[in-house]
Every structure is written in structure tokens, then in C-alpha cells.
Design brief:
The protein is mainly alpha-helical and 164 residues long. 76% of the residues lie in helices and 0% in strands. It is built from 5 helices and no strands.
Amino acid sequence: MKKLQNALDKGSTFVAAVMCAAMMIIIFANVVLRLIPSVGGFKWYMEGSQYLNVWSMLIVGICVTVKGTHLHVEMVDSVVAKVPALKKLHKVIVSAFIFLFYVMVTYSGYQLSTRAKQAVSTMPQFKMGQVYVIFVIAGAVCALSALVDMIVAITEKEEGGAKT
């Protein structure tokens, strides 16, 4: 399961980095093309770069879920750190709630993407349902990573009271 966590982390980091790079290339190319007379740049550069930005941030949610670097309540963490059994239970409960949250994101994203049939996007041949499908993809992979994190938390053994 740890190998799957590492693969999810590396894969999602790579995809998010490629999306950010594509966003920067589109913006840079548009700036250069605007300086060339009679070209004027892309009509869809702003919308395309915004979609890539949002998509990359949703994909980074997978990394946050895999690494467990989401927001924490410091007081709860300090109380739980003193009792190893509570620490494990806390990690499982947090992973379960994160899993449920991403299941809801996936389901809501599916409903949104199937209902959004309008073509209000300025990008050629692109419907808004295709834009919203990222919620389904990112939500499902985040739910999977939360489930893997929960399984790892349940199956990992405490080594002499050391942090794992």
C-alpha cells in the first residue's frame, strides 16, 4: 500500500506540474503573439489558463491527501500524540471523513458534468460538462488515496512508541 501511495503522489505531482507548465506556455505564447501585428494571440488563452490552474490545484489535492498534509487541529493532534492507540484511531477517523468528503465531491462533480451541456466555453469544441469532469476524476482519485491512507493506518504497526 505504501508503494501505491508513492505512485499516487508522484503521478499526481507530475500531472499537476505538466498542467502548470502548459498554463505558463499558453500565457507566454499569447503575450508574444499579441506583439506580432495581424496575429493578436489566442482568443481562449485566459479561459484555458484558468481551467489548467483549477485542474492542477484539484490534482494537487491528491498529493495533499496521500501525504496527509491537510489542515490539522493542533490541540487534537497534541492530545492524540500522547496515546498511541488514540493516534491510530484518530488517523483512521480523519481518513474516513476525508474519504466521505471526496465521495461527495465525485458524486456532485458527476451530476454537474452530466447536466452541463451548454457550450459557453470560448475554447473550440469544448462544452462545460467536459470542463467539470475534473471534479469526478480528482474526487475519485482523492477518495482512493484517502482509502489507501486509511488501510495503511489500520495495518501499520507501532514501533516502540516512535512516530510513523
